[in-house]
Amino acid sequence: xxxxxxxxxxxxxxxxxxxxxxMVYLNGVLYTAxxxxxxxxxxxxxxxQAPPFPLHDQVxxxxxxxxxxxxxxIGAAGPTTSGRMDPYTLPLLELGVRGFxxxxxxxxxxxxxxxxxxxxxxxxxGGAAALLSQHIAESEIVAYPDLGPEAIRRLTVLDFPVxxxxxxxxxxxxxxxxxxxxxxxxxxxx
Length: 190
Fold this sequence. Notes:
By secondary structure, this protein is α/β, with parallel strands linked by helices. Helix content is 28%, strand content 26%.
């Protein structure tokens, strides 16, 4: 595992430098979208509408943040389960999205598409929503405000911590981690 700092947007060169298991600190702008926002975004694209934010080399964070309390920029902002976004991921990759952040596994089809499009899937730690929100310096709704917490937001992040799960070379930190555990004393094979 290597620690890296990446400035967003995430261009192809930066994406290719990442390996599954890398600890990455993101700095710059990323966009949020969950289920309802993805559904509306893809429906609009299929109708020929321009997306409400630039897609090329962007990172999408699967999060629906809690409302901000007085004096806060954003409320708790932990990742949601990524597999639910799999049906919407291919069109976004085809339009140049370079990275996704969530939690949990991706389908074999999405892992193959990440390799083909030279994109990455990263995990934010589930259960650490309050901590993650401390790495968000700005938050602005840019589309679908009627969706409440699921509106698309533009976030400016500072050293936002993620782990690369699926890299551009087909690496999978979840599979590697399971294999290491299985071989360890007290693991599946120990």
